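The protein record quoted in full:

***
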Amino acid sequence: MSTDSKDSRPPAQVEIGDEQDLKKKLQPLAPQPLADVVKMELLADKDRVELETIWTAYHEEKKSAVGTTLRAEEWETLSHRLEQNPMFVFPVKKGDGAFFVLLAEWKENTLLMTFLEDYQKNPALADPYFYLKAYPDFAEDRDLVLLRGEFLPYLTKSEANDLLDSALDFYLEPSKFEHVQTFNHRSHLFDFNKVFGI
């Protein structure tokens, strides 16, 4: 699954500048509570459509975060499937045939994606490049679950959006979900090339 180079780690997508700024951008990711992301009091009286609009617009402006929403029923399906199938692999295509692979693992309403080769060397030391955090705070009263992904500069915002979409597609679409089930429960039958080709 690795590329031809000795170290297939993707180059960080950062501009040359202040070393302290670079170190800050490459700090390990840590999912935040919703109250640390947005001012909860500003969302208290918003209906579902307004919440969706605010959440989407908020993340369009963020350089290192992406966001989307799900209806409560979709979230129930997604969370159940993630609990039963907590791991999967996602290729990140870089153009000219180059790619690297992220391994995703579900823990506590968060899907963490780490560089596969780092995980293979030492799972305990493999830092996430991307995480997807679910906030079901508004699921009951407004039929809405907020999803937020943050990523390190090894990924572009476009690639992070693609990972967000891919995670939802593979766990929610029945034909793609079969690959996830195979990976988790019948790994000897898993064909990465089929996933790569989708």
The chain is about 45% helix and 25% strand. Residues 1-6 have pLDDT under 50 and may be disordered.
